[in-house]
Structure formats: C-alpha cells, structure tokens
non-specific serine/threonine protein kinase (Geoglobus acetivorans), 260 residues
Amino acid sequence: MKDIKRIEKLLDQLRIKEKDSEARKIFAEVFDERTLKTLYKLSAKGYIQALGGVVSTGKEANVFYADGSINGEFKPLAVKIYRIETSEFFKMDEYLFGDRRFDMRRVSKKELIFTWVEKEFRNLERAFNAGVNVPEPYTYLKNVVLMEFLGEDERPYPTIFELKRDLSEVTDVEELYSRIKEHLTRLYRKAELVHADLSEYNIVLKDNDPYFIDMGQAVLTDHPLANSYLERDLRNLIRFFSRYGIKESFEELISSVKGD
Ligand SMILES: N#C/C(=C\c1ccncc1)C(=O)NCc1ccccc1
C-alpha cells in the first residue's frame, strides 16, 4: 500500500498544476514514490517549475507537459517518465545488448530502465547536434527525460498519422516527404543512428516541418540489427506516403539515405 499521504505531500511540493482530484488520482497512480522523488529533485534543481497534463501515454512510459526553466529561460518541457515496474522492458533487450555504448552485464530491471533513459537522452543529443529535427534534449535523471516540448500552449503538434486524411490539405506532401528523407539521411550519415521505430506515429508536423520523436530505441549504424531496423523504417515510410501518390521504390530510398 503506497503511502498516499507522502505522495500527496510530494505532489503538493511539485506544484502539480492539475487542481482537480481526478488528475491528482492519475498522478498518484502513475507516479510511484521513487518517481515522485526524482521529479521533486528536478523541480528543486529548477528545471521543472510546474507539472501540467498528460501529452501521450504508452505501455512503457508516459509523456507530460511541464512549465520549465533552462539556464534561467522559460521553456515548455516534455517530461517523459518510464514506468520502473514496466512489463515491456524485455522489448528493450535487443536494442541495448547490441549497442557498444552500454555494458549490459548483470543489470537489474531498474538499472535496465535507467540505462534506457540514458540511451534515449544520448540519442536525442546525437541527433540534435547533427542538425536532425528532434526535440532538444535538456537533461535526464533515473527514469525521467526532460526535452523540448513540441507543441503550442501545452497542446502537442499533431503526428502525420493524426493528420492522415487532411495531410494534402495542410501541407505539400511531396515537400514533406523530401524533408523527412533529408532528416533521415542526416540521422544516418551524420548522427550515425537508425531510428528503429519510424512510422507516421513518430513524425510530428510543426509549421510544415517534420520532427522525429520517440528516440529511445534508436541504435548506432554499426548495431548488428541496424540494417533490418532501417529497412523496416523505410518500408513504413513508403507504405504511408504511397497513399499520396509518392511512388519511390525501396531500393531508391535506401540508396539515397545510405548514399551508396
Ligand atoms: N520524444 C518524444 C515523445 C513525445 C513528445 C511530444 C511532444 N514534445 C516532445 C516529445 C514520445 O516519445 N512520444 C511517444 C511515446 C512513447 C512512449 C510513451 C508515450 C509516448
């Protein structure tokens, strides 16, 4: 039985913006005590000024909005919180055990999650520094990543999946496809990363510009499974954009990304 009173106290200290009891119930449910302590540390360090609402939820993590402050400047934050007792952690194995950046001998489930969070942060850094459109990474602590919030007034920008039916009305689809290829090529050749879960669900549209999100599973191009992940990513793109009359073949796309 979690100590609800202690959690309530931590939630108060976190200045949770959601005043209504329903949202506080979700917070109390979603946040175990360790996570609350981590969020409290991030707010004590000044990064999190006030926690907002849920942006998106998944089996292994949840993303919340927060008013943030980075180097004294107001910054809207996406706060991605991984569940520590998640049952999805086995999915992480194949992506971590082939990655030379991480020594995965004898780690507990908790350490596996913390390593995954470090990986997501470092992937975001590599991509951002290579000029790839991804949320700017700010910091990470235990099972929490803080990054740039891609949205306006606490509302996230839409994914191209959400825009599917109206995509050709809201943007030039040919231009969008070529910008996605440009950033995918930069991700591969400059950041030396393969996204490994790229699809219409993980491409966000901000002012007609595509951004890649959900970088936790991205792997280095020398990962043993990098080529099969890249193939899956590219086939997903071709499938989605074929409905808008874009006919590029898989062979053309993979050679334009790899540059060979
Ligand atoms: N980076 C990132 C993400 C969102 C985001 C939104 C707005 N601004 C920045 C980031 C992200 O991982 N979304 C997918 C996801 C995976 C697992 C659980 C929940 C959600």
Observations:
- The mean pLDDT is 90.
- The chain has two domains: 2-152, 157-258.
- The radius of gyration is 19 Å.
- The first helix runs from residue 4 to 13.
